[in-house]
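G., the chain you wanted modeled:
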Amino acid sequence: MRNRKGMTLVEVIVAMALFAIVMVTVFPAFLITNMMNNVSKEFMDANYYAQEELEQIYNKGKTSTMPVIVAWMKSDRGFTCDLQAGGAEICTKTLSNIKYEISFDYHPDPSLFTLHVVTVTVEITTGEYAGDRASINNFMRFVPVVGG
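Predicted structure as tokens:
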């Protein structure tokens, strides 16, 4: 009987019990990893959208004045823009589940007043990860307004 083939019922039950114990301890790690991947994807998407808007503004700013950029944001890009009390311009737009807010503000140092602080904020408005956002700040110098 030493040369038997296969496993006994007891060996199969012990192997299944060991497998079940290992799976019960490891399975939550898979769930947490999946959740972290979803959160990371939302943040990466928001960062991508913010970077894309900032690059559009940067490219337009190489050849345009600040008023032309704001008009372009309204007409071509579908933003709603409001002039703030301190001279800052804030443009907003919501597409699907993403809210964009772009702020054009003057540099606080009067000697650098032609330099603008451009802040692009992207917020997820619906879904499991609503509220997560990306924010990118950049200093930009636009073509100066003639006579200004």
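Residues 13 and 19 are 10 Å apart (CA to CA).

Shout if anything looks off.
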